[in-house]
Amino acid sequence: MKIFYNNNLIEEDELIISPHSKGFQFGKGIFSTLKIVGGKIFFLRDHLLRISHSLKKLFGVNIEFNDNQFLSKIETLLSVNLLENARLKIIFFEDTIGFSTIIKLSKLVINKEPVRLKLSQEKRGDNVLYKHKTLNYLQNILQKENAEKKGFYDFLYQDYNGNILETSYCNIFFVKGNQILTPFKELNLLPGIIRNRILHNQNLKDFQLIESKICSNNIEQFDSCFLTNSIHGCVGIESINDCHFSEIGQNLFDKLSIY
């Protein structure tokens, strides 16, 4: 598989990163993952804006991205790798020469089956890193793997006040009647691209879209709930611990579709 390392198109096994790179040693970097279907790249501008915001907020790095340059590189990767559907990852990390960029593709695998979640026993405190997709994703990876070993799709995090936050890789929404609720972005969570798109989705004008504090002790009051991320879109939740939910109605599910 060919990748871009800065402006160089190379085979992925030709990539050499210095062991002195802070991105390699300490995970000093930012990434974002996008979905490509039929050659269409979804929400590139949104992802680049979020990367730019994180680079400035965390590292004081100001970068103005040229969308057309990224688009050209991505289209080149699709062509040389003979792909139309793909998972796209854009990585910015501190190298020995400053900040470097990797753009890579991988196989697109999508899950649409309802999932089972378990409330994590780990509580989150205040940490600015929760709001950014840094390369130090070890906690997310370990938690997801641990949840799968226990027979669940993932753990659902909460803070020390019992407020629902997110899973390792997804935001969460709850549905009650004509209300669709999601945790406040001011809490210790990553405000995802799809989350933001849903909150501004004109197809949902018949619903109240609400950002709110959602206590883990009160989840049984909701009719249904679903996860969102940039690869899977919207995925229904079958249960959280022993609390079971109805399937999302087809009418609402169709309106939630943004791809």
Notes on the protein architecture:
With 259 residues, the chain is α+β, with helices and mostly antiparallel strands. The chain folds into 2 domains: 2-106, 2-Layer Sandwich (D-amino Acid Aminotransferase, Chain A, domain 1); 115-256, D-amino Acid Aminotransferase, Chain A, domain 2. Helices cover 24% and strands 35% of the residues. The chain contains 6 helices and 15 strands. Strands 7, 8, 9, 10, 11, 12, 13, 14 and 15 form a 9-stranded mixed beta sheet that branches. Strands 2-1-6-5-3-4 form a 6-stranded antiparallel beta sheet. Strand 5 (86-95) and strand 6 (98-106) form a beta hairpin. The protein starts with a strand and ends with a helix.
* CATH fold call of the largest domain: D-amino Acid Aminotransferase, Chain A, domain 2
How much strand?
Answer: 25-35%
- Helical residues, percent: 10-25%
What is the total number of structural domains?
2
Top CATH class of the largest domain: Alpha Beta
Overall mean pLDDT score? Answer: 95
> What is the helix/strand order?
EEHEEHHEEEHEEEEHEEEEH
Rg over CA atoms: 19 Å
Compute the number of helices: 6
